[in-house]
Specification:
Length: 256
């Protein structure tokens, strides 16, 4: 069928594009921020659910065909077999099953997955200021389970219950990395909260103390892909610049 949409310079909604199209390359180089934007304009009626196709140019097509002709699967760098591989979406859709693999069953041990990590809904409160978090105890791993809970844990029900309905996106920074330590009931766990790099360092992190929460609902737990571990970062994936039609560029930008 061919392309059903086309790249064009932004219309009136983006006020600076029109002015920038009149600039020289030297003028644009002096600007502190970008001032150009594109529209994606339909070339014909597009049905609901139909994929958007844009012509990326002849060079892109040749590069893609070369990739298809020469592609070899990347060497596996994980001990997981194809039956134990699970996507973040699949894990979030069936948390009870996925959590079996991530639960350490030990208040002192952490679990490192090759491409996923668990995040827990968390917000800083006065509980983070308890005395135990203001001093380093290098021997905390030698404490009994009961004493660990008594010293370092708080009830996590209010942080986790009902959060699945409120969660929308990562940028609210309400998801903190966490470890799933022990299953308590059908849908509650003991978890260890880890420092969120986008938030101020907490005393418990500075002093390497475990921030534990009990009675934590699985509603507050999410599976997230580790940075640089998604499919687009695999060796041998296809990457090539998307072509922009030559005819849309102003003459003063072109080499003479």
């Amino acid at each position: 069928k061919g392309p059903n949409a086309q790249i064009r310079w932004a219309s009136e909604w983006h006020t600076s594009t029109k002015a920038w199209l009149k600039m020289s390359l030297d003028d644009m180089a002096k600007e502190a921020t970008g001032g150009l934007a594109f529209d994606i304009v339909a070339l014909r009626d597009i049905e609901a659910g139909e994929e958007i196709f844009i012509d990326y140019g002849e060079d892109w097509e040749k590069a893609w065909q070369s990739h298809v002709d020469n592609w070899q699967p990347a060497e596996a760098k994980t001990s997981l077999n194809k039956d134990s591989w699970i996507s973040a979406k699949e894990a979030n859709d069936d948390k009870e099953t996925a959590l079996k693999q991530f639960t350490t069953n030990d208040l002192r041990r952490v679990f490192e997955h090759p491409y996923l990590f668990t995040g827990c809904h968390y917000s800083v409160s006065e509980q983070d200021e308890k005395e135990a978090y203001h001093k380093e105890d290098k021997e905390w791993r030698k404490l009994s389970d009961e004493l660990l809970i008594e010293t370092y844990a708080d009830d996590g029900e209010s942080l986790s219950k009902g959060y699945a309905e409120r969660y929308q996106f990562h940028k609210d920074h309400s998801i903190w990395p966490c470890q799933i330590l022990k299953k308590e009931s059908d849908d509650t766990y003991t978890v260890r909260i880890l420092q969120n790099e986008y938030e101020d360092e907490q005393n418990w992190d500075a002093n390497r103390a475990p921030r534990l929460l009990t009675n934590y609902s699985q509603e507050g737990i999410r599976f997230i892909v580790n940075p640089y571990k998604s499919d687009q970062h695999l060796e041998g994936v296809f990457r090539y610049p998307l072509g922009i039609p030559d005819e849309i560029f102003p003459e003063q930008w072109k080499k003479t």
